[in-house]
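Section 5.1 Outputs to date
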Amino acid sequence: MHQVLVLLAALSMPLVAWASQRGVFGPDNGTISDRYPTLLVADGYAFSIWGVIFLLDLVATAWLLRGQPVPDREGHRDSHRCHWLVVAGFALTASWMIVFSQQWFWLALAIIWLALISLLWALMLLARAVPRGAPSWLAVLPLALHAGWLSLAAFLNTAQVIVAQQLLPTVDQLPWTLVLWALAALLLLVANARLHAPGTGPAALAFAAAAVWGLVGVYLKQRASPMAGADTSAWVALGLAAALVAQTVWLRLRPPGPNSPSRSSGTNDPSGLNDPSGVNDRPDGPITPDGARPSRRTGAPTPPPIAAAPHHRH
């Protein structure tokens, strides 16, 4: 059942986007965005990333429909929690396009934040399970790209709601825009750090890539904007993009810790993909070539048990 819902939710996003761009639900997103200019809006080219996101989400859905187990953070290979989070994230993404076209701004704001929470949660479950090979590229990469873009888009949408509802000054937007930039930096850097735990595969780089793509789009848009404070917002966006790139490089190049999956022999591989035989998943640890097992207390090899002496009848 959950696999069918994942497919329907994944298909709904490009279909709704196609209808939305043709005005089926009302003005398209670009038209509404132009009505409420902010210091956080990105250049139009940046939103072309949605086409890539929708395509890769369909690829991830096809992988899930093959019945492959999706381990969660605790390594429960029969857990469907990730599937339901993906269904929610995809469905909310599709519904946001309809609601935003209707200019129901408060509802749209709630939807985009719930979509971000759902997909970021699913992404963390997958990434912390440290999948390798196909599961990493076909599941982690699409969700990382989607969640990375939403992590920035949610703040862009927040700024538009503030202007549309005139909650804060719309002429001098820089003070409250800087607050949103600070919150965006906190979310992006913390999520990126948690996502790139030691042993995480390169597919997780898509999270930072999507965010940097959007930040560069904001920089280009604000550099050409006549609004007061646009230059400052542009340089903040570029600085955050540079900080995210530097953090990602450091996270990828730092040496793995003593308990990271790359240094373990399989006991920290909750996905089970690095040890398909299951030998290293034994509760008492793997057996070394000389028959010894690692001690649970010290980790040092312990000798194999010695056979008891035979009993003689008298």
